UniProtKB/TrEMBL annotation:
The protein's name in its UniProt record: Cytochrome P450
Molecular functions (GO terms): heme binding; iron ion binding; monooxygenase activity; oxidoreductase activity, acting on paired donors, with incorporation or reduction of molecular oxygen
Alphabetical keyword list: Heme, Iron, Membrane, Metal-binding, Monooxygenase, Oxidoreductase, Transmembrane, Transmembrane helix
Pfam families, per database record: p450
Protein family (similarity comment): Belongs to the cytochrome P450 family.
InterPro entries xrefs: Cyt_P450, Cyt_P450_CS, Cyt_P450_E_grp-I, Cyt_P450_sf
Residues binding heme, per UniProt: C450
SUPFAM superfamilies associated with the record: Cytochrome P450
Annotated source species: Sphenostylis stenocarpa
Entry's transmembrane regions: 20-41
Length: 513
């Protein structure tokens, strides 16, 4: 029906512009009427679903999300309706989990029931029809891909092989910042390109001519996927899907062309052109050539490379950015962190990865940032594979499940002064983000836990240590520490709404300045 109306609009457009408005109005009216009748039909169905707020026709509970970022709105609702609740967004029912106990039920006790992903229309486009790791349906294909990632691409050894390129990119950032000593700089604009630079070089090898345009297209794609997309809220509307995803498809086609060129370039390289360090495209192509039982197509390779970019770029950058923001607001923690980094590296005069293990306080800072500002605050949505009982409530098969990791990390039952930045809380305790402590799940848990932890941690530790070692930091315009704006922006990752502007004062000049 929607396609017919869409075609009608297109035909009328060629003849009489005023008629377009009439047809568009008629369409909206029919759509609203249809949805009201549909939602009345489902209103009275008696189930034992978890509780939740009353829904409005057509929009469900969307009105609760106006004026706040989703993880905060969901926390407010959970305070009223409990740690397991039903929220309707548009026409889609979601189960929201907001306590460590229920997170454990989902991620451990019933992991196999909840390890699927919903088939969202935007993820179909960017994932080559659900063939990347993040959006693949649970099954044999996902298992094979996961194995390639954990055994070939994201191992300790592979991550270590990228050490020198991480050190080069971090040192380049430091030199660039040092050139603006005493001036107000946009630190955000220094951090994000550095992390993307590391990811691009790990994926494609030495600085590729495609690097800049590829990164900007990936950032554009992430922006288009962020927030509640209308198309995801009304999956039954083919017209909405078509209209909402047109731009995303265009950006994806551009990314696809670049990735295919990069693959061809790698394929056609002579052995003398190959670099000493294998990049991730090399590894995937070698796997493809082996022609093992789990054959990888070019599209599969492109899907995995995008996984690594979308997983690896924004997330680590946002931790560094929030880290600097919290440290500026807490001069005591800043001083302590700088004293540690300077004690460890002063004999060398620069920061490299050899001594990162000694930075115990910095590691606690990073853990605290991942608790207060988890880059993926609602994790990646899960979908139940069969009916299941949780806490006495019925969760039907094929229900979307969202875990509010942000709220769980601030649960006052588990965290004292939960909203305060106190890195010391991680001293002398074994709480870790590897998916076994359910009050702290910034990387998720269970079999879909983030496979990129090893890749992410040095991308955060090295730049943060470098920024703390070489510079003291001041706020612009004599702003007081506590006045720094900490507003969050809702998107696919939890970034600062406004870029971070600071003044660097060199205390240890970088070499070759
Ligand atoms: C601070 C950095 C990062 C954070 C906080 C983070 C967080 C997450 C979270 C919350 C999930 C969903 C887990 C779940 O459903 O339980 C996830 C999945 C994933 N992440 Fe990360 N991530 C980070 C860095 C990375 C990096 C560096 C990579 C790759 C190099 C990566 C690749 C992936 C992939 C491929 C998945 C999908 C796994 C699957 O569905 O099987 N992530 N990540």
């Amino acid at each position: 029906m929607y396609i017919m109306i869409y075609q009608m609009v297109m035909e009328v457009q060629d003849h009489n512009p005023s008629s377009i408005y009439f047809v568009a109005f008629a369409f909206c009216f029919l759509f609203v009427l249809f949805k009201i009748v549909q939602s009345w039909g489902s209103y009275n169905s008696s189930t034992n679903l978890p509780p939740g707020p009353c829904t409005l026709p057509l929009i469900g509970n969307l009105h609760h999300f106006v004026g706040s970022v989703p993880h905060r709105s969901l926390k407010k609702l959970a305070d009223k309706y409990g740690p397991l609740m039903t929220i309707k967004l548009g026409e889609v029912s979601n189960i929201i989990v907001t306590s460590p106990e229920i997170a454990q039920e989902i991620l451990k006790t019933h992991d196999l029931t909840f390890c699927d992903r919903p088939s969202l229309s935007s993820s179909r486009i960017v994932s080559y029809n659900y063939t990347n790791l993040a959006f693949a349906r649970y099954g044999e294909y996902w298992r094979q891909l996961r194995k390639i990632c954990t055994v070939e691409l994201l191992t300790t050894k592979r991550v270590q092989s990228f050490r020198s390129l991480r050190e080069e990119e971090a040192s380049e950032m430091v030199k660039k910042i040092a050139a603006s000593e005493g001036c107000v700089i946009n630190l955000t604009h220094n951090i994000y390109p550095m992390t993307y630079g590391i990811t691009a070089r790990a994926a494609f090898g030495k600085k590729s001519r495609y690097q800049q345009v590829f990164i900007s297209k990936i950032e554009e794609q992430l922006k288009l996927m962020g927030g509640f997309s209308v198309a995801e809220l009304y999956p039954s509307s083919r017209l909405l899907q078509m209209m909402a995803n047109t731009k995303l498809e265009k950006v994806h086609r551009h990314i696809d062309r670049i990735l295919q060129d990069i693959i061809e370039e790698h394929r056609n390289r002579s052995s003398s052109d190959r670099e000493a360090v294998e990049d991730l495209v090399d590894v995937l192509l070698a796997y493809q050539e082996k022609g093992s039982t789990s054959h990888l197509t070019d599209d599969n390779i492109k899907a995995v490379i995008q996984d690594i970019f979308t997983g690896g770029g924004e997330t680590s950058s946002s931790v560094v950015e929030w880290g600097m923001s919290e440290l500026i607001r807490s001069p005591r923690a800043m001083e302590k962190a700088q004293a540690e980094v300077r004690r460890v590296y002063d004999s060398k005069g620069y920061v490299d990865e050899t001594e990162l293990e000694q930075l115990v306080y910095l590691k606690s800072i990073i853990k605290e940032i991942l608790r207060l500002h988890p880059p993926v605050p609602l994790l990646v949505p899960r979908e139940s594979r069969e009916r299941c009982q949780i806490n006495g409530y019925e969760i039907p098969s094929k229900t979307r499940v969202i875990l509010n990791a942000w709220a769980i990390g601030r649960d006052p039952k588990y965290w004292s002064e939960a909203d305060s930045f106190i890195p010391e809380r991680f001293h002398n305790n074994s709480i870790d983000f590897r998916g076994t402590d359910f009050e702290y799940i910034p990387f998720g848990g269970g079999r879909r836990i983030c496979p990129g932890i090893l890749f992410a941690i040095p991308n955060i530790e090295l730049p943060l240590a470098s920024l703390l070692y070489h510079f003291d930091w001041r706020l612009p315009n004599q702003m007081k520490n506590e006045e720094l704006d900490m507003t969050e922006c809702s998107g696919i990752t939890l970034r600062r709404e406004n870029d971070l502007y600071l003044i660097p004062i060199i205390t240890r000049p970088p070499s070759n300045m």
